[in-house]
């Protein structure tokens, strides 16, 4: 694997899981949007569609699922395919910046992976990590994993493979409960498998309507509170906000990422913020580039009330 600059902690590519076991929180949009923003920066990015529903493959990128008779991710995870990982990668047109946004797509065989992983393999939680170790040296700067909406063996595979996590959330009760469960799951996996602590880059509130309802404002305040570390609880700052916006679906329908479809949109800027954070983590950008960004506006109840808003 390619080495990062001396201030970086581990070799490239930097592997990030976009993870929350709750469905409908915007994992796929966050994955492809951030990937597009990294490609815009000239980075070489590999997206992995670990979700059998295949929204990243078929909807966000407009690609076909892999024929189950051809080499595919599902067969690689359960040991039916043992060839090079390059044969699983769908190469896409290079970005105008010189960056790249490639994909390991899903297939219908992914629906059987959870059952087969337990029945066919040793150390099933490590299959994805071992697969990615086969990436040719210097091929990619970042790998982004779009995870399924569950706390199952596929989620564990993403946790084991990843250097760090970005967690999409919604400002509501069920999403906050799912977040607490996820943090516990991460700790359990790290302890059971004796893994180094995964870097929790932060939260990305999304899929909410504007203006926020009174309840949503209070839930947003609770999310903002995760940015303050407590004993035994790592800080989870908010990286960006991704409210509901028609531009996301429009970009998908056009076959483009949001930053390419509408570069000046605020959603594009949100994806660029997250891409900057990941680039700093990879040692490809200076810490100052992240810390020098304008601070996010607080959307919590206290902030709204202090400004005289309802």
From TrEMBL:
Xref: Gene3D superfamilies: P-loop containing nucleotide triphosphate hydrolases
Organism domain of life: Bacteria
Residue span, AAA domain: 14-193
InterPro entries: AAA_dom, DNA_Partitioning_ATPase, P-loop_NTPase
SUPFAM superfamilies: P-loop containing nucleoside triphosphate hydrolases
The protein, known as: ParA family protein
Source organism (scientific name): Pseudonocardia xishanensis
């Amino acid at each position: 694997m390619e080495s990062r600059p001396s201030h970086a902690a581990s070799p490239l590519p930097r592997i990030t899981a976009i993870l929350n076991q709750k469905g409908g929180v915007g994992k796929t949009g966050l994955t492809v949007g951030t990937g597009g923003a990294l490609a815009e920066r000239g980075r070489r990015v590999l997206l992995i569609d670990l979700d059998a529903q295949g929204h990243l493959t078929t909807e966000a990128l407009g690609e076909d699922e892999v024929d189950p008779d051809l080499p595919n991710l599902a067969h690689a995870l359960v040991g039916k395919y043992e060839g090079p990982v390059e044969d699983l990668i769908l190469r896409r047109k290079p970005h105008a910046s010189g960056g790249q946004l490639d994909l390991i797509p899903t297939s219908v065989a992914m629906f059987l992976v959870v059952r087969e992983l337990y029945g066919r393999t040793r150390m099933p939680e490590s299959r994805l990590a071992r697969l990615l170790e086969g990436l040719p040296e210097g091929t990619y700067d970042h790998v982004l994993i779009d995870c399924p909406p569950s706390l199952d063996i596929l989620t564990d595979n993403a946790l084991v493979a990843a250097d760090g996590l970005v967690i999409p959330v919604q400002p509501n009760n069920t999403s906050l409960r799912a977040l607490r469960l996820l943090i516990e799951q991460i700790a359990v996996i790290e302890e059971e498998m004796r893994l180094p602590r995964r870097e929790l880059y932060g939260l990305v509130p999304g899929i909410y309507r504007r203006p926020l309802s009174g309840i949503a404002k209070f839930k947003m305040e609770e999310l903002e509170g995760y940015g303050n570390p407590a004993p035994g609880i790592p800080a989870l700052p908010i990286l960006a906000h991704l409210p509901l916006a028609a531009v996301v679906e429009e970009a998908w329908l056009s076959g483009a990422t949001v930053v390419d479809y509408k570069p000046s949109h605020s959603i594009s800027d949100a994806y660029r913020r997250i891409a900057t954070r990941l680039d700093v983590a990879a040692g490809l950008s200076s810490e100052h580039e992240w810390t020098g960004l304008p601070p996010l506006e607080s959307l919590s109840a206290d902030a709204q009330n202090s400004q005289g808003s309802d």
